[in-house]
């Protein structure tokens, strides 16, 4: 059940696929070097392996408790959080002026993956603080930044994201929490929020709650919503935690997984808060947090899948049953040598690599959108980031569920026994397709907003990039690469065909929504195949130039080829399923169980 | 969280698809009539709805306990079991001479589905007793039949299936439990078995354990294995439970799901037992039990999926969020009207109907294999049963996992909260692809044994039947049916292409094993689509003849069309993935996380 951070796999993705290197030329990251990246990933890997991973199962078994409004996290979490603060991990990707390390978001994303692998329940706390910091940087006043950012960036204070109410989940516009002005610039907020991750806990000395609420006389729906900052303890004149605010946890959920993460029902009874951004500007602020969190949740999918994979791989090498073909030694043979088991492992590995590459490409794009010297390059990167965000979130979390399920399957009966640990990954992974916007909401965002953006530029640009890689594959001297290129070309054609159908002027909204989830799947399948193909091209270059471990480089080609021959081959068949149309959805009567 | 047995859906499948009617002509079921079947399904449905379903969540929360070798099942299980015995449900499909009702297995299978829907953990007990009864009927001595069958068929005594040991799971030939002759025809059995479902419990007055063990001097591997009958209490001269035998539960597993089902580690220390069948004939006896249990586990997949579906459907009608297209009333709208949610529900419904039809067709084939008057018809039915058994088991249990996962997703955040119940279905469902032969083992059975059987007759006959249905669709006056037929024809072509590749003389074993799981998926996808198409043809006939509820009949066509346009459209793309070949499976080096 141990975990070892895949530092070299991540480094390869950052060096060759998501190309962190491109950021160096911006001049905004003077210290950024391969050595530094390697050192940081190695150090973060140690923290994940040695501190967080051992608390994963104990945290699942023990869970959190709520007594008189105080939440106690599982044994060891508080000390692990102190080490997190000490390591400065919360501030990796944030500006040095507020105490951060000023490194790229892509690097912070890579570190987050390791933490999520090691302990998803624990890492949800820091994950939400990341998002709140981004929102404060983008929308907070100078005073708010000065008061809160340094404490959040060290991790001494943590943060939440308070949107959901019992009647307002995907439809946030239905929320009813109310804010009344106090006349001194502060507001008095009253209402109840549910499903608040790390809403209350014993790890940080203060908790800063960004809360969506309605102000008097505002319009109905999302246009009347504002974002408020509500500290658990009101900062005193020196900026230290002072008076206890009227916001508290009144319930903890009993969940299928992530037991170590306290999911709270929060009650505000005239809690004191301040606007973040303008009145009625809550949704824009929320989307800053949400977009950050969506990528981070995608990374959770990668992380939990990697954890499940390492465990399944170790078991498959160790467990001996039956007679495998083409093995000389006497039976029973290690189950990894049974083609069926090896294929499951290959599927897991290929999809993890693809999802990691999608998430890191999304993160690098976010960095480039901010730091590219040229305005057009920044705009291009922003479009790429926005296109990839729903794919990173939904496709990677679906991969998380699929891979953790295969992890259970490879363990056979042992996989269903809680002590083995494989079941926990499967339970933990299942939340990720739901929160921060269900995967259905991601698909609607992709089809409804991202395809239409800038006259369809984001998807056209993606297809152009994919076809460039097809060309790179076709001209390779390695005989595998033109085959990968051929599969990828068909995938790109399918993606284009489906996108064109969806983007056709006058396309009925119900028809495009009917195909949305399948389209997101196709987009993820093809984008993942594209990024693996880039990795294969790089692997071939390394082989040719004698750079690095040839086994590793060959592995990149083998995995890309496997993915191309299994996942990309299925891509063209998705087009019809995307173009289904709402008329083929059965009516209520046909859906009844009778 | 309530459950309502889908009596009419099941009746339709038995009347029009799995065609229970065909059995009537055998003369072996003189009382079999539509009225009787309806009455039995309605009565069993009541038992499932009113007695078993309410104990599902409480059983999950409470679980089982083991104290001094005695297992206590959750509150209410013992009383529910007494009602099971009283209702005579255990004996439905067994001969009247031993106290059964002498009805077809297909009917018993339909009843089992309802029980599994209502309470999967509870129903595992009776399910294993079904299998043991079949093994005793097929392989027991007259004396054993007379002594044990009446008690098992009433359900007063229950049974288990003891195969697995820590070192012998999929590879049963590695088992080490030993049997020594006592010289009086009885044997003394010593060893340990794990993962024994309902191995010990407080519901029945005696437990009959069929146990695989090795006798002295036998050959290694499966050829040296014999099956023993070991009663918990040795029957006295009157056939009542007497002396306590040396077999006991020494541990209970902590599992991800089916908490109400006691999964025991069993220790035999010189337990007294008797051979079932000949010495060294254990594997044949085991397969009688296993094949019965495999179909029954497939039915569990259907049952748990139906339960999850009913709950998700109810939630989707009730929960209102957002603005759905083409709805006149003011938002928020019921989420069932969001195309994305409706599509998930349609996917669930279509796959449940398909899996149910596969399982019931397999069960009816088993009945026909025994009762058809003509020997050739019996042999044909036997081939169909054997071909369908691994598909019924693996495809339906994969559907169980997929559908329960969609059930969680439709509930959004509520789906992850244990009190909702959707999560329990997801946890419970996950065991079914593992036990009674993992789904990988089923795929190996399908590709390695079933395709090769009788010179390939079973798959050829299936394709002939499918193409007959294609023709029936193409000549229909309903415009949907030729479209369904066209998709089905392409599915059949794909299935044939893949089967021919696998069956090609000299095909490398590693290559065919590499494609086994994908082939089973294709076979299930196409067979499911075929049976739904038969249902659509019958629906159209009912519409034309004004028979029954037209909404219901139209629903059969809508669901078949939806399945054809989504699942069958993807079938041709699976062929390449099946023909992948072992060379494309990455080597160990490429699979490492680095």
Automatic annotation (TrEMBL), chains A, B:
The lineage of its organism: Bacteria, Pseudomonadati, Pseudomonadota, Alphaproteobacteria, Maricaulales. Residues 282-445 form the Acyl-CoA dehydrogenase/oxidase C-terminal domain. Belongs to the acyl-CoA dehydrogenase family. Coiled coil: none annotated. Gene3D superfamilies: Acyl-CoA dehydrogenase/oxidase, N-terminal domain, Butyryl-CoA Dehydrogenase, subunit A, domain 2, Butyryl-CoA Dehydrogenase, subunit A, domain 3. Residues 463-583 form the Acetyl-CoA dehydrogenase-like C-terminal domain. The keyword NAD does not apply. SUPFAM superfamilies: Acyl-CoA dehydrogenase C-terminal domain-like, Acyl-CoA dehydrogenase NM domain-like. This is Acyl-CoA dehydrogenase. Its cofactor is FAD. Residues 78-156 form the Acyl-CoA dehydrogenase/oxidase N-terminal domain. Pfam families: Acyl-CoA_dh_1, Acyl-CoA_dh_C, Acyl-CoA_dh_M, Acyl-CoA_dh_N. It comes from Hyphobacterium marinum. Keywords: FAD, Flavoprotein, Oxidoreductase.
């Amino acid at each position: 059940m141990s975990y070892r951070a895949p530092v070299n796999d991540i480094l390869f993705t950052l060096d060759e696929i998501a190309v962190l290197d491109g950021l160096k030329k911006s001049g905004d990251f003077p210290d950024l070097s391969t050595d530094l990246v390697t050192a940081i990933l190695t150090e973060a890997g140690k923290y994940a392996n040695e501190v967080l991973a051992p608390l994963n199962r104990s945290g699942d078994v023990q869970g959190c408790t709520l007594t008189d409004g105080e939440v106690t996290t599982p044994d060891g979490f508080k000390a692990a959080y102190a080490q997190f603060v000490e390591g400065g991990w919360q501030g990796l990707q944030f500006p040095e002026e507020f105490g951060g390390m000023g490194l790229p978001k892509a690097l912070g994303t890579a570190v987050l993956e390791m933490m999520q692998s090691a302990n998803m329940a624990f890492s949800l706390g820091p994950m939400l603080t990341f998002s709140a910091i981004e929102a404060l940087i983008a929308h907070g006043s100078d005073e708010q930044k000065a008061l809160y950012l340094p404490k959040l960036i060290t991790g001494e204070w943590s943060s939440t994201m308070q949107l959901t109410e019992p009647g307002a989940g995907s439809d946030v516009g239905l929320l009813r929490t109310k804010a009344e002005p106090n006349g001194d610039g502060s507001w008095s907020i009253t209402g109840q929020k549910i499903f608040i991750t790390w809403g209350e806990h014993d790890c940080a000395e203060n908790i800063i709650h960004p809360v969506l609420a309605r102000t008097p006389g505002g319009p109905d729906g999302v246009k009347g919503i504002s974002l408020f900052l509500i500290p658990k303890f009101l900062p005193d004149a020196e900026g230290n935690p002072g008076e206890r605010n009227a916001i508290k946890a009144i319930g903890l959920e009993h969940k299928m997984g992530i037991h170590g993460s306290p999911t709270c029902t929060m009650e505000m009874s005239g809690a004191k808060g301040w606007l973040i951004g303008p009145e009625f500007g809550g949704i824009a602020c929320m989307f800053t947090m949400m977009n950050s969190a969506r990528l981070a949740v995608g990374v959770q999918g990668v992380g939990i899948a990697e954890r499940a994979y390492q465990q399944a791989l170790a078991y498959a090498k160790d467990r001996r049953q039956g007679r495998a073909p083409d093995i000389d030694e006497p039976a029973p043979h290690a189950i990894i040598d049974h083609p069926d088991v090896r294929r499951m492992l290959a599927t897991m590995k290929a999809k993890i690599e693809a999802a990691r590459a999608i998430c890191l490409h999304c993160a690098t794009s976010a960095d480039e959108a901010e730091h590219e010297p040229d305005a057009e390059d920044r705009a291009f990167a922003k479009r790429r980031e926005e296109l990839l965000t729903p794919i990173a979130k939904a496709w990677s979390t679906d991969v998380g569920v699929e891979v953790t399920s295969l992890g259970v399957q490879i363990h056979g009966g042992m996989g269903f026994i809680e002590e083995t640990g494989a079941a926990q990954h499967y339970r933990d992974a299942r939340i990720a397709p739901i929160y921060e916007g269900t995967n259905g909401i991601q698909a609607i965002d992709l089809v409804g907003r991202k395809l239409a953006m800038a006259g369809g530029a984001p998807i056209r640009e993606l297809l152009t990039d994919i076809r460039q890689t097809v060309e790179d594959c076709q001209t390779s001297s390695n005989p595998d690469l033109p085959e990968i290129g051929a599969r990828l070309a068909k995938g790109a054609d399918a993606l284009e065909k489906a996108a064109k159908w969806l983007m056709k002027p006058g396309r009925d909204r119900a028809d495009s929504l009917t195909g949305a989830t399948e389209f997101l799947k196709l987009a993820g399948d093809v984008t993942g195949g594209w990024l693996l193909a880039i990795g294969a091209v790089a692997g071939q270059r390394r082989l040719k130039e004698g750079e690095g471990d040839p086994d590793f480089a060959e592995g990149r080609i083998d995995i890309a080829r496997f993915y191309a021959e299994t996942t990309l081959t299925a891509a063209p068949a998705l087009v019809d399923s995307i173009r289904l149309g709402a008329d083929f959805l059965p009516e209520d009567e046909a859906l009844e169980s009778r």
